[in-house]
């Protein structure tokens, strides 16, 4: 099958290897072509030996892609904006998925799988919101040599795939609420520069789609889901987020309002939408004819007994993994919060000249087994082709929260040496209460990563009340909290006035649910009109 992408100029074939799609595997030093196999292998070896060549505060973008690759989270692919997710990334995604599934199951959400393809007639039913997105929709136009009589779209999101079936499945009030979720890939043919996990043309997400008889029930769910997203970030990924509501400009145009969790990356001074939960109101119900026989209307003997359903949709994507990497990674590489770490503890033998290495290996295996039996994700590294110093750096790069070293002296004392990835602190632990100590340390690392990230975010947050202070804070890459009149035109103006040669202007990230006090006479920082609320502003991904 061939795929084409509808761009604003029309449909463009992407079958051949155009410049756009050719790829070089970037490394710390020289770029290497994919087909230059032997030199590529050499380069990769050199790369892992050298580790991260860029510092986080020197060139954040370069640092980030190096950390993703050296930490073994992903690799580049020969189609621009597409990435190979490697086992550590897939593992984290699986952990987030298991947590989220358990939470939504309690809410009565059921898992489905809908097809990848969308018929043009369904896709175009929802003209208004599709309009702005249509340049990003990828189309299948050919099967083998023959052109399809009707091209088929690849889902960029599944409203138009799912809602025709909501209309078929929902008849009476007994069919409500209907709560479905699916874990799928989606494709959006972005034209701005891709960033691993953060902005890729294909990504993984869950999308939840629900329908209720009443707005009250639907509204409650929007915020129940938002809380789960907040928990995923704060409790699992140890990333502080702000719960809030998107502005009219930034909300999903197809709905009533968009609730969001927003993260902030101090190193780049940019906000990032971390997950969203939309109240769709009855807009889609109207378009797709999703209605139910309303028993109350029947009792009231109303003319028509049918009512439109109230809908929500909500999603979190693999972008969350990128936010975690950006937040906790350091100059040595990845730093995993223990709760999502694919490997929580690595056990490394420290051989000593003249001491039987097999005895050390056996001790490492025994410690690993004890940890595994206690439900701790542990690994031992008995590769005899690498020195232990090299292994330390390797596992640091991969972000493992705790390293246990075992050498002859530790054996003699029936202890192990343990080293924290986040702060480098070392301790000697008696083998006897190892499990208890390790669990305790993992808990402390989890908390301390969150605390450090929270301090970092708070240090970048600035309250301003006038334009000059706003511009000053923006130039300092701050996350800005400002009183706002809540007018669409004012946000557009701010965006326009803060545009740079290289990038987009500043915009609202959200209006936080938790509002500071607002004096009656407080004015909008941008328009000078009476302020209606405090909102977060900044540049964003
Ligand atoms: C908006 C809305 C919503 C379910 C979520 O944010 C969570 C999960 N969906 C998604 N959106 C689009 O509707 C959209 C549509 C097209 Cl055609 C597109 F190419 C890109 C899109 N991006 C976002």
Automatic annotation (TrEMBL):
Pfam families (alphabetical): HGTP_anticodon, ProRS-C_1, tRNA-synt_2b
Annotated signal peptide: none
Coiled coil: none
EC number(s) recorded for this UniProt protein: 6.1.1.15
Gene Ontology terms describing biological process: translation
GO MF term list: ATP binding; proline-tRNA ligase activity
Aminoacyl-transfer RNA synthetases class-II family profile domain ranges (all copies): 96-337
UniProt keyword terms in alphabetical order: Aminoacyl-tRNA synthetase, ATP-binding, Ligase, Nucleotide-binding, Protein biosynthesis
Compositional bias ranges of the Polar residues kind: 15-30
Catalytic activity: tRNA(Pro) + L-proline + ATP = L-prolyl-tRNA(Pro) + AMP + diphosphate
Superkingdom of source: Eukaryota
InterPro entries: aa-tRNA-synt_IIb, aa-tRNA-synth_II, aa-tRNA-synth_II/BPL/LPL, Anticodon-bd, Anticodon-bd_dom_sf, Pro-tRNA-ligase_IIa, Pro-tRNA-ligase_IIa_arc-type, Pro-tRNA_ligase_II_C
SMART domains with a match to the protein in the record: ProRS-C_1
Region described as Disordered: 1-30
PANTHER family cross-referenced by the UniProt entry: BIFUNCTIONAL GLUTAMATE_PROLINE--TRNA LIGASE, PROLYL-TRNA SYNTHETASE
HAMAP family: Pro_tRNA_synth_type3 (MF_01571)
Protein name: proline--tRNA ligase
Organism: Eruca vesicaria subsp. sativa
């Amino acid at each position: 099958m061939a795929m084409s992408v509808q761009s604003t100029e029309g449909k463009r074939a992407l079958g051949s290897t155009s410049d756009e799609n050719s790829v070089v595997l970037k490394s710390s030093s020289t770029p290497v072509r994919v087909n230059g196999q032997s030199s590529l292998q050499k380069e990769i070896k050199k790369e892992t030996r050298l580790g991260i060549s860029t510092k986080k505060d020197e060139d954040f973008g370069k640092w980030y892609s190096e950390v993703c690759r050296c930490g073994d989270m992903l690799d580049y692919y020969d189609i621009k904006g597409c990435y190979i997710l490697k086992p550590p990334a897939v593992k984290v995604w699986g952990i987030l998925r298991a947590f989220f599934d358990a939470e939504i199951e309690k809410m009565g959400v059921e898992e489905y799988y809908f097809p990848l393809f969308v018929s043009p007639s369904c896709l175009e039913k929802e003209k208004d919101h599709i309009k702005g997105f249509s340049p990003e929709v990828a189309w299948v136009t050919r099967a083998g040599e023959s052109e399809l009589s009707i091209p088929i779209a690849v889902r960029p999101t599944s409203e138009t795939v799912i809602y025709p079936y909501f209309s078929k499945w929902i008849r009476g009030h007994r069919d409500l609420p209907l709560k479905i979720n699916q874990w799928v890939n989606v494709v959006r043919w972005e034209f701005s520069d891709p960033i691993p996990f953060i902005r890729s043309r294909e990504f993984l997400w869950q999308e939840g789609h629900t329908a209720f008889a009443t707005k009250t029930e639907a509204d409650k769910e929007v915020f129940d889901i938002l809380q789960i997203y907040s928990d995923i970030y704060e409790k699992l990924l140890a990333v502080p987020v702000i719960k809030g509501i998107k502005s009219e400009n930034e909300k999903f145009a197809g709905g009533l309002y968009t609730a969001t969790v927003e993260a902030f990356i101090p190193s780049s001074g940019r906000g990032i939408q971390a997950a969203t939960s939309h109240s769709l109101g009855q807009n889609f119900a109207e378009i797709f004819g999703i209605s139910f026989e309303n028993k109350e209307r029947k009792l009231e003997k109303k003319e028509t007994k049918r009512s439109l359903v109230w809908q929500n949709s909500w999603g979190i994507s693999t972008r969350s993994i990128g936010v975690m990497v950006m937040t906790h990674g350091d100059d040595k590489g990845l730093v995993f919060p223990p709760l999502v770490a694919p490997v929580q503890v690595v056990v490394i033998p420290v051989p000593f000249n003249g001491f039987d290495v097999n005895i050390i290996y056996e001790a490492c295996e025994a410690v690993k087994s004890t940890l595994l039996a206690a439900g701790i994700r542990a690994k031992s590294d008995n590769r005899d082709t690498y020195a232990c110093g090299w292994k330390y750096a390797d596992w640091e790069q991969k972000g493992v929260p705790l390293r246990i070293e075992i050498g002859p002296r530790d054996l003699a004392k029936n202890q192990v040496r343990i080293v924290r990835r986040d702060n480098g602190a070392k301790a000697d632990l008696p083998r006897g209460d190892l499990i208890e100590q390790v669990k305790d340390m993992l808990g402390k690392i989890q908390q301390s990563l969150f605390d450090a990230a929270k301090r970092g975010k708070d240090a970048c947050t600035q309250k301003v009340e006038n334009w000059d202070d706003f511009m000053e804070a923006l130039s300092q890459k701050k996350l800005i909290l400002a009183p706002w009149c809540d007018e669409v035109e004012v946000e557009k103006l701010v965006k326009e006035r803060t545009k740079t040669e290289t990038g987009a202007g500043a915009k609202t990230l959200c209006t936080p649910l938790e509002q500071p006090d607002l004096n009656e006479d407080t004015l909008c920082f941008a328009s000078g009109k009476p302020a209606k609320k405090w909102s977060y502003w900044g540049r964003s991904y």
